[in-house]
Amino acid sequence: MKLLIAFLMVLSFATQTTYAQASKDSRGFDPAFTHVVHFWLNNPENRQEREYFETELRALFKESKYTQTNFLGTPPKASREVVDDSFTYAMIVTFESAEAQQAYQTEAVHLSFIEKTAHLIKRFTVYDAKGLNP
Hints:
Blueprint: H1 2-17, E1 33-41, H2 47-63, E2 70-73, E3 89-95, H3 98-105, H4 108-117, E4 121-130
Helix pairs in contact: 2-4
């Protein structure tokens, strides 16, 4: 239940902040299909490793031909018990369809990101969701 509430809060935050991101991201939040990943790094206090991880993730955002909205964030200091702030990074990307998300899974730039950063990651969780029509 805590994870569901945290996911909804992160998703809500992402929909409110996408306007401040770079050109590819400024198209607004695409509600068709979301892919939310929380990462826990092995050495979250290591600045060089964090910078490398962020650089590689931003390259993924820039080079992927499938992602629509791209969001990278860090947890704020939790002010309520229901907020999970144990992760190092949250990534939210959206896709125009489940098929586009599936193609992204085997896209060379995505596989390269995994290969280049796997040694930094202790754990990750993935939440995919299809948007509901209003």
